[in-house]
Structures are given as structure tokens and as C-alpha cells.
Amino acid sequence: MAGSEFWASLTHRPTQLKFLLFLCVVCIVCLLVFDGKINYQWDEMLFSKDSIGNETTEVAANATARESNASENLLDMATKCSPMQYILFLKTHKAGSSTVTNIFFRYGDSRDLSFVLGDDTLIGWPTRFRLGQALAFDGTRPNFLCSHTRFNKKTMNHLFPKDTSRYITIVRNPVAQFESIFNYMGMGEVYGLGKDPTGSLKAFLKKGIEFKDITKTRSSRLVRNPMLFDLGMDYKFYQNAGAVKEYIASLEKEFDLVMISDYFDESVVLMKRLLCWEFDDILYVKSNERFDKERGEVSEDVKENIRRWNKADMLLFEHFNQTLWRKIEMEGEGFYNDLAMFRRKKAELKDLCFTNETSNQLMYGNKYAKMMTLKPNLPPETKVKCERMTRTENSYLAYLRTKRSSKLKGIFSAVPNEDDQEKVSWDVASDFKYDPV
Ligand SMILES: *[C@@H]1O[C@H](CO)[C@@H](O)[C@H](O)[C@H]1NC(C)=O
Ligand SMILES: *[C@@H]1O[C@H](CO)[C@@H](O)[C@H](O)[C@H]1NC(C)=O
Ligand SMILES: *[C@@H]1O[C@H](CO)[C@@H](O)[C@H](O)[C@H]1NC(C)=O
Ligand SMILES: *[C@@H]1O[C@H](CO)[C@@H](O)[C@H](O)[C@H]1NC(C)=O
Ligand SMILES: *[C@@H]1O[C@H](CO)[C@@H](O)[C@H](O)[C@H]1NC(C)=O
């Protein structure tokens, strides 16, 4: 029977109408039962996610009670996230990383979270990070590593498991970054080219240095491709295009976010979204900025030579600049609303805390940097909040070490050791499994 005929005949045949109604009722009942099942399964899935152990029977018993709330929970999961508090920040040199570290210090300190600390500003740098370089842990899993370390995948992955931690670092346009490092570290003098920031840089770039001279002093390792050095690449591969590209690709896998100093606010807002933090958590004032007189003049030729001498860092920067903008694009409109909101809040805070003047601040050893001047007569609570933003890294570190050792008193403390035989097994990987003849 054709459809139209069926519908036409319906009006005349009460039995068929009844049959159709019956079918409808059956369908509705089926839907209800089926829907209930789905809810139930979702519910169990949601629940078992955060349950541990043997509570299955209780889950089943509670499932019906929770059924009505299941769709709410799903919505929650989709729209809410919980703040990430396990963060490895690979602190690169002269790329705005002190400002990021200050953000982490404030966040962690105010919540009594733990930091991986060393007995110096640098933890083991310039050697690759090893557990033994850090001060003893208190037996709990550390929340932050944000001091200067050199990247070491295996050890860091052990301390900050990838699936439950976030890996962040920051890079900067190499032209600006290299000039900054060269003069900050006094490389002109190290290589016998004098103190003049402009002249010594230009002379250095005439021919660069021999491979063997890169280890002349501790910090002279930063005299070529400083960012890739901090990120753990071996300098013997600096001139190997294939190795550099592979290494950059491996960093892309390793880091959840590579911030770009040249787009600092954008980077910080991306970080906020990645970590599910609040605006208040990411407010900052620039830290460890040098005075203009310490800047060298950089002519076009010198800029071009910086790019050529640091070709590997150029590729690194270009790669992650692209990645950053791709990520921003993927965040959609909401990102720019957040960015505007963040900048507004930042300006408000600056107004609240600081005058327009800058002064000298002793940062590391004999290094001074610009510091914002606090407004006089701030209410005590505001004053503390404002001061923390300009607190130097070393002052924070000293304070965190004391805080940590008082926490440690009487508590079991273990010094994890990579060579600890109990934890080492051939079976961590099977690629080169021993297979004798
Ligand atoms: C459930 O786990 C607890 C401890 O986690 C244990 O004491 C108990 O025996 C377990 N019950 C069953 C039925 O497995
Ligand atoms: C089940 O519900 C009871 C009462 O509402 C509650 O005390 C219990 O913790 C619940 N169990 C689980 C596993 O959620
Ligand atoms: C359902 O949600 C309401 C409000 O969010 C809550 O008060 C209630 O305890 C929840 N019921 C169950 C069974 O989880
Ligand atoms: C970074 O990438 C953006 C987008 O592709 C581009 O417009 C910008 O010029 C790049 N910045 C630098 C400093 O290269
Ligand atoms: C501080 O800066 C603001 C805006 O940039 C300006 O309006 C104000 O006059 C400045 N104050 C002083 C004391 O320079």
C-alpha cells in the first residue's frame, strides 16, 4: 500500500488508527527505557573515573539516584576544568622567563604547593638536569620546577609525568635575545673583544668562535643558539639541519605550550587557558629588564649575522611562533575577549601598585635591573600583593628554601637517585632488547 493511500484510509478506519496509536506508545516506552540505560551507563563511566577500588556495588546502587544529575555532570565536564598544579617550566635565558617564574612563585606559595629547588639560582645548569642536583624532596610529588635548568627529557618526565603535568617554556626572537645575552653575560670580555656592547658584538660576529671555545666559561655555552642549548640540544649538532629539525619536532611533542616573549600577553593568556587558572593568577609586571644604556646598537648587518650564527635558534623561534598563532586561532573568539580583559586587569593593577618611575633593583650577583616603584601609603594587604610581583627571583628562592626546610622538619625526606638499582630495569624499553646468538 502506498503511503498516501494509507494515510487517506486512516481517517475511515478506526482499527488502523488504534494500531498506530499503539505503535506510538510502544515507541515512547522503548525510548524511555533506552534513554535510561544510556544515562545509567554514562553515569557509571563518570563515576568510575574518579572512584578507586571496589565500590562497584555501591556505584550501581547510587546510579539510579544520580541518574537525574547525569546530564548536568556531563555539561560540567564539558565546560569546567580544574586548575593544573603540576608544571615544569623550562626557564630559558633572557627571554622573559623571570616574569613567568614570578607568576609560578606567587601561585605556588599562596597555595603552599611545592617547588623543585636548588641551592643556587641555577639547578645544575649547564649540565642537563639530574635529580641529585635538586635539594631533597619532602617525599611528595613536587608541583613546580621553574628555576634555570637544562632540559633532560628522561629525568624530567620521571619527576613530572607527562599525562598529569604540563610542560611550558618560552622563546624569543633570536635577534633581540642574542644581543641581550651577549652583553648581559659580558661575552665581549670573555672572548677578548672589549666591553663596548656594540663594538664587541660586531667583532664577535665577524667570524664567530671555534667549537672548542664554546665552553670557555660556564655561561659561554650561551654564545650560540642559547635557547636550544637550554632546551637540551647538544651543541655539536648545531650545524646539522636534519638534527635541528628533528630536535625541534621532538620539543613540539614534549611541550604543551611554548610561549613567545615577543607576544607575551597572548602567551600568558594561552597559558591561563591551558592550566585552567584565573586572571588573578597570571597578572604580572615585567621583571629583570635591563637599562637602555646596556643595550647595544644593532645594525642591519649585525642582525643578519645574528640570524646566521644562530640559525638553529631561528628555526626554533619561527617554528614555535607559528605554533603559537595556530593555537590562538584554535581558541576562537573567546581568546581575544580574555586578552582584552587581562590587559584591563593588568593596567588596573599597575595603577593600584606603582608610580611611573623605575629604579635600580639588584637581581643576581652584581646585576641590576629596572624595577617599578611602589606607591607610598598602600594598605598593608595591597602592599604585600604589589611587592610580591616585583620580588626578585633570588629573594623568592631564599624564602622558598626556608619555607621548605621548616616544612621538612621531622618529615621523611628522600633524595631520589637515578641510579637507584631498585627502580632500574632493562624492560623500560624493548627496542634494543638483548638477543644473544
Ligand atoms: C574493598 O576494599 C577494602 C580496602 O580498600 C578492603 O578492606 C575490602 O576487603 C574490599 N572489599 C571487597 C569486597 O573486595
Ligand atoms: C552512595 O550514596 C550514599 C547515600 O547517599 C553515600 O553515603 C555513599 O557515599 C554513596 N556511595 C558512592 C560510592 O557514591
Ligand atoms: C543532584 O544535584 C543536586 C543539585 O546540584 C544535589 O543537591 C543532589 O544531591 C544531587 N543528587 C545526587 C543523587 O547526586
Ligand atoms: C610570528 O608569526 C606571525 C603569524 O604568522 C607573524 O605575523 C609574525 O611576523 C611572526 N613574528 C615574528 C617576530 O617573526
Ligand atoms: C604617569 O603616566 C600616566 C599615563 O601614562 C600619566 O597620565 C601621568 O601624568 C604620569 N605621571 C607622572 C608622575 O609622570
TrEMBL record:
GO MF, one example: galactosylceramide sulfotransferase activity
GO biological process, one term: glycolipid biosynthetic process
Compartments where located: Golgi apparatus membrane
Keyword entries, A-Z: Glycoprotein, Golgi apparatus, Membrane, Signal-anchor, Transferase, Transmembrane, Transmembrane helix
Taxonomic superkingdom: Eukaryota
GO cellular component, one term: Golgi membrane
Membrane-crossing residue ranges in chain numbering: 20-40
Membrane topology, from the record: Single-pass type II membrane protein
PANTHER family xref list: GALACTOSE-3-O-SULFOTRANSFERASE, GALACTOSYLCERAMIDE SULFOTRANSFERASE-LIKE
Family classification: Belongs to the galactose-3-O-sulfotransferase family.
Full protein name: Galactosylceramide sulfotransferase-like
Organism: Desmophyllum pertusum
